[in-house]
Amino acid sequence: MSAEGMAAPMAAPRARPAWLESFAGQLLALLASFGIALVIGALLILAYGENPIEVYRSIFDASLGSADGIGYVLSIATPLIFAALAVSVCFKGGMFNIGVEGQYYVAMILAAVAELNLDFLPGPLLVPAVLIAAMLGGMIWAAIPGVLKVRTGAHEVVTTIMLNGIAISLVGWALNGPLKYNDAPEGAFVDLRTNVFPKTGLAGDLGSAFGITPGAHLSWLFMLAVAAAVIVWFLIRRTRLGYEARAVGSSPGSAKAGGVSIGSTQVRLFLISGALAGLVGMQNILADRGYLPLNFVVGLGFTGIAVAFLGQNNPIGIIFAALLWGILSRGEVALQISSQVPREFIIILQGLLILTVVITYQIAKRRLAARQLQRAGMFGELDDSDAPGESAGPRGPEETGAEALEPSDEKRI
Amino acid sequence: MPFTDIAVAIQISFTYFTIIYLTGLGGLFSERSGIVNIGLEGLMIVGTVTGAFGARFFTDTVGLGTIWGPILGLLFGALCGAIFASVHAVATITFRVDHIVSGVVINLIAIGLARFLSYAFFNGQSTQSDPGGPHLARLDIPGLSSLPGGLDRAFEGLSPMVIVAALMVIPVWYSLNRLRWGLRLRSCGENPEATRSLGVSVPLYRYQGVLLSGAFAGMSGAFLAAEVIGAWREGQTLGLGFIALAALILSNWNPIRLMFFAWLFGFAVAIPLRLQDAPVISLLPEQFIRMIPYVVTIVAIAGFVGRVRPPAAAGRAYEGGGGS
């Protein structure tokens, strides 16, 4: 980074376009963070007495070394793309949708209701109806924190986490009550689940056309996820709502002064986020299972947050981040077979990746901002560590430090 | 419904008060110093796995007996919580990563880290440890535990940690309101620029605040795993770290008011565990009873959040003299 910083020609401010510079900076940051994570990971592998290169190669072989492996990676990535897109849409508006988890639970309930009650529809109508039901379910569950935030100021991190807890019980209630299976053969033991969905309402196998095992459950949902990423990119970059979202996210004060309704923007972002979150569970119930079981795949919403950070909230970056996540997850299998390193190592490696990506991007962002300020000639000498941020300016009268230095705040009780 | 049920629910509420209060105090130190910490849940998770291991290790492996073993187990959980919190501290204070982003990352990593540690601690079991771990002897509170009509049950068989947590309010309140250290810590959270102009190192105090939050949340997790459940189980924190965060917000970042809200949420958590048969509540399906603590938290946050004032500089990156 620093070498590149020195090379930047001070005398020719417009030598390179800003986007290229920011792209190059981000790419460097990304490579640096990958490098750091892989090196720390290699040290851990050495601690287990294994050869890091062999372990990394076995992860690569299991995921990208065969058509089947690639199929697994794509189907693991499918729900993660939806989840990360859902997180990133809210993030663009400066909000944290930690509730993707609960939103896709509720969406799966509504999708199951649609599957089991609209089974008279032909496939080409049934599947869209199911997807719409799922998106509606996600939107309903996302609207609650959005409206509460705008109306009462309740922080969405707390409310969405609580709604996740409510949603898991809601699934349990639905599977014990209204959606309880009744098509089981007499006397057979069946897990708690819904009836089997009609065949026409499922996301059919796509992999066999490419010589991929049906066990990977690769379906057109992956294509839908990629399309969703493109739509989100268009929405954020090319529409009025996207512009308003970015304005609210980067500077609510200026957005308001510019005539943007902050509350309405935030609620709309939550609704879009919820719609995307609604599609997270579809891979599991439409492609993998064909019904909604109680032991459905949980945690995709939280993994989506990690993938969104890894992709730096860029819809295209998210596709690649989800694929990387899929490669690592698929690598767990290889670890179990071919080495002494426990499969939990992968989780640690994924954690290291998020941490290094978040930190190096922060550093890269600061350096870029500092350099741009320098170019603009606003400051004579500007070191990274002294860069004044937007928040260091003068502050409102209610925030004076005098209050803090009082011996006690008992008067506020 | 007999009084016994209410009494037992109250007894359980004391246990959950302890968890929520300790974690909330952790959040208090961090946020008063200006660092928002939504990683409390993750810090608790690390506390659960290390605490469960520590209690067993110091009691059985080292052979310190059932008094010092469990105590050191709790302290080991606190230490590991503090070590893990240093990740949040480095990210937010030194590298000035957004506090919420870092907190979310802490929560994400904690789940994997806990599995990794569990695998190493408990013979390859990555999601649980064997039940029946050692814990401190249970106490009956003198006087209150001889109340008539079944109410005595509320004050019987409590972990000594319940009393420790309740008494913790005194040193915490005193250090934050009477000691120079606490006043400086709080001024870092209100106006770091002014604090720096007085010659105080803001990053130093913020590091202390965040590490303390890890210690408290870690101890709380260790208490949950070792003292309450007697084993580590994946997911046993059940969002209590976030409930503690909600209690902290409602308390207006005040350790005394935090006691009340921690108990209130503790009672809400106890309802599905013990009061399923109470009037009105018993009319609900079982799954809806389990939602009660979460619904109570949402309603409380939505109803009261407008009336509290967080530390002015919490969540804001402090730029001056940080030193990366």
What can you see in these coordinates?
- By secondary structure, chain A is mainly alpha-helical.
- Chain A has two domains: 19-50 and 363-377; 81-339, ABC transporter involved in vitamin B12 uptake, BtuC, CATH 1.10.3470.
- Helices cover 66% and strands 0% of the residues of chain A.
- Chain A has helices at residues 2-7, 18-47, 52-64, 67-92, 100-117, 123-152, 156-176, 221-238, 240-250, 252-257, 262-278, 282-289, 300-310, 315-338, 344-376.
- In chain A, helix 2 runs antiparallel to helix 15 (344-376), helix 4 (67-92) packs parallel to helix 8 (221-238) and helix 4 packs antiparallel against helix 11 (262-278).
- The model of chain A is unreliable at 1-13 and 380-413 (pLDDT under 50).
- In chain B, helix 1 packs antiparallel against helix 11, helix 2 (40-61) packs antiparallel against helix 3 (65-94) and helix 10 crosses helix 11.
- Chain B is built from 13 helices and no strands.
- Chain B has helices at 3-32, 40-61, 65-94, 99-121, 160-167, 169-177, 180-190, 192-197, 202-229, 240-250, 255-274, 286-290, 292-304.
- Chain B has 324 residues and is mainly alpha-helical.
- Chain B is globular.
- Chain B has a single domain, classed as ABC transporter involved in vitamin B12 uptake, BtuC (Orthogonal Bundle).
- Chains A and B meet through helix 6, helix 7, helix 13 and helix 15 of A and helix 4, helix 7, helix 8, helix 10 and helix 12 of B.
